[in-house]
Design brief:
Shape of chain B: globular
Helix content of chain A: 40-55%
Number of strands of chain A: 8
Number of helices of chain B: 1
Helix content of chain B: under 10%
Largest sheet of chain B: 4 strands, antiparallel
CATH topology of chain A: endopeptidase fold (from Nostoc punctiforme)
Number of helices of chain A: 13
Strand order of the largest sheet of chain B: 4-5-6-7
Oligomer: heterodimer
Radius of gyration of chain A: 23 Å
CATH superfamily of chain A: endopeptidase domain like (from Nostoc punctiforme)
Structural class of chain A: alpha+beta
Chain lengths: 349, 334
């Protein structure tokens, strides 16, 4: 009898223990609470602070959500509590003037500069690599604004103006490196595809990279490639070439190479966006083990990046050929110098 | 009698002060990668006046002498040239591109964002430092913007499936700020540059691509003289000796700049109706923009693309004697 009772106790204990032990993956059907919206709101406030120099909204959020100081620590480490840093140089990037005939309609440009809002946003999301993209359209020598792109504008207040033509000056004065990419001969996009994208102005266009207005950034809602209203910079050339080729320019598994075991995914997991999301998951779901939070964040970010196209994906596209990369000190740097400048060494095995 | 003299003196002072404010300043503002300069043709000097956005393509002085230009992320901001400090800024509905300021103190600012209402242009009152309105319905990107006879003229190159690279001229009534499309050309071989003096508007047809045609070819460009109010065509001139690169007008003469085969510039000084060449001059290098002509001294910028960077020079040129007085390098690398 005693033995039987002991066995019953052991079995009961095992049952209790197994009930307490978490499964190996989080309950994916369980809502992440407000974690996504809160992470989005915080990233949005950071970007607004970088645009205006007023970080009051960030401080308000931290005062409400960050009793332990963990979010503040993550933000401080990422340099997210200060305005955009000055460019590393006051000199312009040495690319040819648009009027010299060095560019052709359909040329894709990617760039990185420490001083621009877009670059700051991409820093927060992707850490390394190119931060902005656009596509050149030859509108004649009389027009300086020939680079069709989409820009972050946190002051638009919903009226929309994402699609815009940027100037040679916008590009050379604000960046640290610019690379020109061109399809092989005869395969460049034409005015027809460029104009088709330009004609999406029939509705207001709004900047959105990781979410829709109201949760401007970081809401983990991918922006569909064929959506005519929501635009971010690298979607513009990608959409033009979608129309021209009918197939995507980029490798869809670029960031999720080898099922996430590659270095690119490791880099994405260092981003402020990822880390803020994980902290919010921990705050909202304190009973979740840390690896659940990370797993949930992985899935959310994978879903987004599978749909989005980043400037790095354009740079790595097998359908575009690098023509040159220029910096303020050189009109042509080697691919190895380019990789080092952009931190691509972390992408390597 | 004494009080009358005092009153007269006071009136003279008032007239003099307002007159000074309303006249063209004796220096030309310009910007190069964010650094704002004042070019002084009388002293052949260039001095730094402050800093604005490094991506700003231009600056303009208001009647009080403040220098307005683009400031990130989307302001039109004013510098006090004496202190070099920002003294005003006006938030715009969109990122500004380029602008002009009329003698009445209104700034007309072009934008390059694609909106539901087409491209837009903001009107700013620089005296009160407020945005007055945003004009909509513009179908292309700015190629030029000039004031003339109470109007502001905006030339654009069309953008879009139906009108890509078409030339458009918009007339904005400065009194009401009403905008209307005044001229339209479907010729994609040219873009429009403008110059104005008194009651005349000069519409330059500049080659949109490198023209390789023979001397005198119409592909080199042409100039139309129009009434600045009615836009009635007064004369069309088509005898360009090379690709037309710039034009400038003042009441007594019109300056046309052509590129020669060596990459230098042939300058023709013509009468206001373009019926005779009064002088012909050779300028070293290309002319990128004319700042002005005052007391016989032409002040202009040249821009050369040299192995990977763009070099910009400020040039003072004595038109009568046909000699360059001074060339100051702004530099591609500052």
């Amino acid at each position: 009898m005693k033995g039987t009772l002991a066995w019953v106790c052991v079995l009961a204990l095992l049952a209790v223990l197994s009930a307490c032990q978490p499964p190996v993956s989080p309950p994916l059907d369980e809502e992440a609470g407000d974690a996504e919206a809160k992470a989005a709101a915080l990233i949005g406030a950071v970007m607004e602070g970088k645009a205006t120099g007023d970080f009051g909204a960030v401080e308000t959020i931290l005062a409400q959500d960050d009793m332990q100081g963990e979010l503040r620590e993550v933000l401080a480490e990422a340099g997210a509590l200060a305005g955009p840093t000055a460019r590393s140089t006051e000199q312009p990037v040495r690319i040819p003037w648009l009027g010299t005939g060095a560019f052709q309609t359909g040329d894709v440009l990617v760039c990185r500069g420490s001083g621009t809002l877009t670059s700051n946003l991409m820093d927060l999301v992707l850490v390394n690599g190119y931060a902005h993209a656009g596509i050149y359209q030859d509108l004649g020598t009389g027009v300086d604004n020939c680079i069709l792109s989409a820009d972050v504008d946190y002051l638009t207040e919903g009226t929309g103006e994402a699609l815009n033509y940027e100037s040679w000056l916008d590009w050379i004065a604000k960046n640290d490196v610019i690379t020109l990419l061109r399809p092989p001969n005869g395969l460049a996009a034409t005015d027809a595809e460029m104009d088709a994208v330009g004609d999406f102005r029939d509705g207001h266009t709004v900047y959105a990279f990781l979410g829709y207005p109201g949760a401007p950034v970081g809401a983990f809602q991918p922006i569909p490639r064929d959506n005519p209203d929501y635009w971010y910079c690298s979607k513009v050339p990608a959409r033009v070439y979608d129309l021209a080729y009918g197939v995507p320019l980029e490798d869809l598994d670029f960031h999720w190479e080898n099922h996430g075991s590659g270095p690119r995914w490791w880099v994405v997991r260092q981003s402020l966006l990822y880390r803020v999301y994980v902290v919010y998951l921990k705050l909202m779901k304190p009973w979740w083990p840390l690896f659940w939070c990370a797993y949930k964040a992985d899935l959310a970010l994978q879903g987004v990046l599978a749909e989005l196209v980043t400037p790095d994906e354009l740079r790595a596209s097998g359908m575009l050929v690098r023509q040159f990369s220029a910096t303020p000190t050189s009109d042509s740097i080697t691919e190895a110098e380019e990789a080092a400048l952009l931190g691509w060494d972390t992408y390597q095995d | 009698m004494r009080s009358f003299a005092a009153l007269l003196l006071l009136l003279l002072c008032v007239v003099f002060c307002f007159g000074e404010a309303a006249e063209d300043p004796s220096v030309y503002p310009l910007i190069h990668f964010g650094q704002v300069f004042l070019a002084d043709p009388a002293r052949l000097e260039l001095r730094v006046a402050g800093e604005l956005s490094p991506a700003a393509p231009g600056v303009a002085a208001d009647p009080e002498g403040r220098l307005w230009g683009r400031l990130e992320p989307r302001y039109l901001a004013a510098l006090d040239p004496a202190s070099g400090r920002l003294c005003a800024r006006v938030k715009l509905p969109r990122k500004p591109y380029n602008h002009l300021i009329t003698p009445s103190g209104k700034a007309y600012v072009t934008h390059s964002a694609l909106t539901k209402e087409g491209f837009t242009l903001s009107v700013v009152d620089t005296r009160r430092k407020v945005l007055l309105r945003e004009l909509t319905g513009i179908v292309g990107l700015r190629t030029d913007l000039v004031p003339a006879a109470g109007f502001v003229y905006l030339a654009v190159a069309g953008v879009g499936k139906e009108n890509s690279r078409h030339c458009y001229l918009y007339q904005i009534d400065e009194a009401t700020d009403r905008i209307r499309e005044a001229l339209h050309s479907k010729d994609k071989g040219f873009y429009w540059k403008l110059a104005a003096a008194g009651e005349r508007l000069y519409l330059g047809w500049l080659p949109a691509r490198d023209a390789a045609s023979s001397v005198g070819s119409t592909a080199f460009g042409r100039v139309e003289v129009r009434d600045a109010r009615s836009l009635e065509l007064l004369r069309s001139w088509e005898r360009a000796p090379g690709p037309l690169r710039a034009l400038y007008a003042c009441p007594e003469q019109v300056l046309l700049f052509f590129e020669d085969q060596a990459g230098n510039t042939e300058l023709w000084v013509m009468d206001p109706l373009l019926s005779a060449v009064l002088q012909a001059r050779q300028l070293a290098g290309p002319v990128a923009g004319v700042l002005g002509l005052r007391a016989g001294i032409l002040t202009y910028l040249d821009r050369r693309f040299e192995t990977g960077y763009t070099e910009v020079n400020l040039c003072f040129y004595e038109l009568g004697a046909g000699r360059e007085l001074k060339r100051i390098k702004l530099g591609g690398a500052r």
